[in-house]
Design a protein that fits this description.
This protein is about 35% helix and about 25% strand. It has nine helices and eleven strands. Helix 1 packs across helix 8 and helix 5 runs parallel beside helix 6. Strands 2-1-3-4-5-11 form a six-stranded parallel beta sheet, with helices on both faces. Strands 7-8-6-9-10 form a five-stranded mixed beta sheet. The radius of gyration is 19 Å and the shape is elongated. The chain has two domains: about 130 residues, NAD(P)-binding Rossmann-like Domain (Rossmann fold, 3-Layer(aba) Sandwich), CATH 3.40.50; about 110 residues, Dihydrodipicolinate Reductase, domain 2, CATH 3.30.360.10. Its EC number is 1.17.1.8.
Length: about 250
């Protein structure tokens, strides 16, 4: 399998290079924002050229590029592993449109542990009535992270909303400040903390009048995301066009 990496010079890109080698796949090369004087891996001028040379492209770049990447990957017919967080509704629509033509694995988090947390979050939300259990999501990341709440936190919120058969956009409360009034019944709350070099911590709390249940995931190394993305790359090859998640990769979807 020939794997291309969009954003190969970033921290995640470098880990992906190592994981591709560990998995026994062939690294075609990658793209980066600026071309260095020397590089140990082949660099392509753009994602379109990378897609033409690859069996699958892994993309951990940045929000704002998803629509352009969707267009060129559709044109090349190349499967897409997308782990970029902070996508807008318009960009997510572009990803969904791409999935009509190519197989796309889009995940807010490629960790197997987080994938299981998402599955459990939906089951717990279905079992714990919104009228009796308030749902709150607390996440903390390194100080350089630019989006909040994190993509993983949003994913957990969507899982809770799915379990309760509501749309997250209708019940989401994020960044409370000032005199906000009482907490609405059925709301799904978010709190985003930033500091240091924390890889990622996410906790889902169901708070009832007589008990509290907390589901927590802590990542200690970004490598778990890279390992999961390469696993998804192997899984997606020869799949039919469609929008997939890590639940499908792990056999849970």
């Amino acid at each position: 399998m020939r794997i291309g990496i969009a954003g190969i010079s970033g921290r995640m890109g470098q880990m992906l290079v190592e994981e591709v080698a560990t998995a026994g796949a062939a690294l075609v090369g990658g793209t980066r924002y600026s071309t260095p004087a020397e590089s140990l891996v082949p660099l392509f001028p753009n994602v379109a050229a990378l897609a033409e040379a690859s069996d699958v492209v892994i993309d951990f770049t940045r929000a704002g590029l998803a629509e352009a990447h969707a267009e060129v990957l559709i044109a090349a017919g190349t499967p897409w592993i997308l782990g970029t967080s902070g996508l807008s509704a318009q960009e997510e629509a572009a990803v969904a449109q791409a999935a009509r033509w190519i197989p796309v694995v889009y995940a807010s988090n490629f960790s197997p542990g987080v994938t299981l947390v998402l599955a459990l979050a939906e089951q717990m939300a279905a079992a714990l009535p919104a009228e009796q259990y308030d749902a709150e999501i607390v996440e903390m990341h390194h100080r350089q992270k630019v989006d909040a709440p994190s993509g993983t936190a949003i994913g957990i919120g969507r899982a809770v909303a799915a379990g309760r058969r509501v749309d997250l956009s209708d019940v989401m409360q994020s960044g409370r400040d000032g005199h906000t009034g009482a907490r609405p019944t059925g709301a799904i709350g978010f709190a985003a903390l930033r500091g240091g070099q924390i890889v990622g911590e996410h906790s889902l709390l169901f708070a009832g009048a007589d008990e509290q249940i907390v589901l927590t995931h802590r990542a200690f190394d970004r490598r778990t995301f890279a390992t999961g993305a390469v696993r998804a790359a192997h899984w997606v090859r020869d799949r039919a066009p469609g929008l997939y998640s890590m639940k499908h990769v792990l056999g849970l979807g």
